[in-house]
Amino acid sequence: MSWQRFIYLIAIPLMFLPTRSGAQEKKEKLQEEKLKLEKNIAYQKKLLKNTRESKEITLFEYAIRSRKITSHKQLVALIRREIRMLDDDIIETTAIIESLENDLASLKEEYGAIIRNAYKNRNRSERLLFIFSSEDFYQAYRRVRYLQQYNEYKRKQAQLIIDTQKTLEQKIRELEAKKQEKKGLLGEEEKQKQSLEVEQQEQARNLTELQKKEKQLRDDIKDKEQEMKKLQKAIDDIIAAEIKERNRFSLTPEAQRMSDNFEKNKGKLPWPLLEGEISSTFGEHVHPVLGIKTYNNGVDLVTEKGAKARAVFDGIVTAVITVPGSGKAVLIRHGLYLSVYSKLEEVYVQKGDEVKTKQEIGLIIYNKEEGKTELHFEIRKAMQGGSEKLNPTSWLYPM
User: Fold this and answer.
1) What's the distance, CA 358 to chain centroid?
2) Which of 165, 235, 293, 307 has the greatest number of C-beta atoms within 10 Å?
3) In the prediction, which pLDDT does 142 show?
4) How far is CA 33 from CA 38, 77, 81, 234, in A?
5) How confident is residue 127, by pLDDT bands cut at 50, 70 and 90?
6) In 175-190, which positions are buried (b, 16+ CB within 10 angstroms) versus exposed (e)?
7) What is the pLDDT of residue 114?
8) What is the DSSP string of 4-47?
9) Largest alpha-carbon pair distance within the chain?
10) pLDDT, mean of residues 366-390
């Protein structure tokens, strides 16, 4: 194999470096997603453990387990994607090894020919005769240069063999590492699939138990709807009273600045609790057991016992109210916008207080019967005659 051909063969893999870099980025992103899912599953497992204070299966426990099953399914799918990526890596590395083996064989064959030729012309006197038999000085100079270049070529060929051998050995080690990684991922996939199967079997039993309590579940839905209506009325009454007091629907310059700043931070607001996850999203839902439709004006966030609610943005406490069945609620004004925090056992602020972002405003109620600590959170935009309900997850920083 010629020197130029070797350069060409070495250059070919370099052409794929951006692709390999992209593959590495994709792999790192998968690892981030995987860690996030594993963290979610661990937290959901922790929440399920807390529900064990209740001897009977509850809708809350059923909902957590449903989310845990979803997380497990996503994790299994992600592991499969990792395995597919590894398979591609293994195929590519195997092809590189085969190419390097062929290159090494060619290099050794060429180097063998060089050595044999050098052996035939090993006599020093013959090399001197070759130089001194030149017709003129210029030809002698060219012959000296030829011999020097020939020796340099031999040295480079020897170095190429060493370098190619090292690269080959490195790629073989990489291939073995990838095969071991794949073996580990296959084992992890099987473990997660078994865990998922156990979860699904238990969830099927839970569904059967819950279906026996249809009347109780329907009563719970009615109670929750009544609580939401009371909270809705309280919010609308507060907004109407503020408009009446000012006798017009307008903002002070300071309130307008606060409103503008709140809008600018859409999608970047901190969560109203330090740790937790969404147990019920905004909008219309189909009940997981009864199949009937329900509506959530905000989001419900499940967390651990003793957790505190915190303000999502600078603002002024516009009201602290008691909602029968939902404990206390705090309303914080941010110009045109309102953030609502309900299901609080204790409140640390009062009407008129200025609060800062992430300031603790109250202790969230712990429901001992269900073993749950859940905050109801809403974001509203005040308008003439009431308020517009906004999806909080569009405003909060992505979990």
Assistant:
1) 24
2) 235
3) 73
4) 9, 11, 12, 41
5) low
6) beebeeebeebeebbe
7) 63
8) HHHHHHHHHHHTTHHHHHHHHHHHHHHHHHHHHHHHHHHHHHHH
9) 116
10) 85
In degrees, rounded to 5, the angle at the alpha carbon of residue 277 between the alpha carbons of residues 275 and 278 is 140
Question: What is the average per-residue pLDDT within 235-250?
Answer: 68
Distances (CA, A) of 392 to 88, 202, 282, 340, 380: 41, 32, 7, 10, 9
- Whether pTM > 0.90 for this model: the answer is no
Please report which residue ranges of 247-344 form alpha helices under DSSP H.
253-264
pLDDT tens sequence across 86-120: 888 888 888 887 877 777 777 777 767 766 666 55
- Whether 163 has a pLDDT exceeding 50, the answer reads yes
Are 317 and 355 in contact by the 8 Å Cβ rule? The answer is yes
Residues 6+ apart with CB under 8 A from 178: 86, 89, 90, 93
For tokens 């009407």, name the residue: 351
Three-state SS at 351: coil
pLDDT of residue 273: 94
Residue labelled with tokens 């299966």: 57
Which tokens hold the place of 124?
């020093």
Report d(CA 63, CA 48) in Å as an integer: 10
Side chain identity at 1, as an amino acid letter?
M
The whole-angstrom separation of Cα 342 and Cα 328 is 6
CA separation for the pair 327, 375 (Å, rounded)? 11
Counting every residue written for the chain, the total comes to 399
CA-to-CA dists, residue 293 to 214, 222, 316, angstroms:
15, 12, 35
- In this structure, is the dihedral angle defined by the CA atoms of residues 199, 205, 209 and 212, taken in order, positive or negative? positive
Give the pairing type, strands 360-364 and 308-310: antiparallel
Lowest mean pLDDT among 18-22, 35-39, 49-53, 280-284: 18-22
Q: Could you give the CA distance from residue 112 to residue 382 in angstroms, rounded to a whole number?
A: 87
Convert the pLDDT of each residue in 190-238 to its tens digit: 888 888 888 888 888 777 777 777 777 777 777 777 877 787 788 777 7
Residue entry with tokens 């600045």: 257
Rg (CA), the chain: 36
> Contact, 72 vs 196, CB < 8 A?
yes
